[in-house]
Specification:
272 residues; single chain
């Protein structure tokens, strides 16, 4: 039953019956079942009460699962926080152990310490995309955007088939103000995944910012083709046409925007 709950866990956000099953199992007489129930409910909105109840469970296994599920609150319970950190410290000789401790530290707001732990994990396991991606997210949370962007890019390099990973790297470079690197990453994202309309869109915005109007409009056209139901794309094209003085093209793009979303006020204002 514990194993079944763990197998069902990844589907819990879309299936209320799994959530109901896990809530019921959280009071099971067997601690393995209770622990698996908490794992299945972790990250599901509105289930914090069940996870919190596990803080006082008589079995250490369940308390540890609950501490992981509600790390920020568990940190306020001195005895539980110590117990959980002692558990995490048992595996600090492995990159996965360093990663887990770093994630716990990040979840409890100790971002500087978290970055240090996860950086060690990336040095010990240089080829795990997941570790580099987690490192990037913690760096991002700590406001260290140039480093975060480089970490996202490294994670994307380790996932050569993933356009989404390279897209995240491109956004991070843009947020860090590194536009040339952002252009390179977003270009790689659409090459990997030609139907990634959001990547085409962001690539178009950056090209326009860099003064490449023709390239920007071409990229936005690709975004429209791949995402025909997203009104942001034709409106961005309308704005660029308007700024370039091509009122006819701006009008046509604004009309395409309103055909998708009649309530898109900026496009209606542009037409007026």
């Amino acid at each position: 039953r514990a194993t079944y709950l763990q197998l069902l866990a990844s589907h819990a956000d879309h299936h209320p019956e799994i959530v109901a099953l896990a809530r019921e199992a959280s009071t099971d007489e067997d601690p393995m079942v209770r622990g698996s129930a908490i794992q299945a409910l972790t990250g599901i909105p509105g289930q914090e009460d069940v996870i919190r109840a596990g803080f006082d469970d008589p079995t250490r296994l369940v308390r540890l699962d609950a501490a992981w599920g509600q790390s920020a609150e568990a940190a306020a319970h001195a005895s539980l926080a110590k117990e959980f950190l002692d558990y995490l410290n048992l595996t600090l000789d492995q990159p996965g152990g360093r990663l887990r401790k770093g994630q716990y530290l990040a979840n409890t707001g100790r971002l500087t310490e978290a970055v240090t732990e996860i950086k060690i994990a990336t040095q010990w396991d240089r080829y795990s995309a997941g570790i580099h991606e987690t490192h990037a997210m913690v760096l991002q949370a700590a406001g260290r955007m140039p480093e975060a962007a480089n970490a996202f890019y490294r994670a994307a390099q380790l996932q050569p088939a993933s356009g989404e990973a390279m897209f995240r790297a491109g956004l991070a470079f843009a947020e860090a103000g590194k536009m040339q690197e952002a252009t390179t990453a977003l270009s790689a994202a659409v090459k990997r995944q030609p139907d990634h309309h959001r990547a085409w869109y962001n690539l178009g915005l950056i090209k326009n910012k860099n003064g490449d109007v023709a390239g920007a409009l071409e990229s936005l056209g690709k975004a429209e083709e791949a995402g025909p139901n997203v009104s942001d794309y034709p409106y961005a094209a309308a704005t660029i046409h308007w700024q370039s003085g091509d009122r006819a093209a701006a009008r046509a793009a604004a009309q395409r925007t309103l055909a998708i979303n009649p309530g898109y006020t900026p496009a209606r204002q542009m037409l007026q």
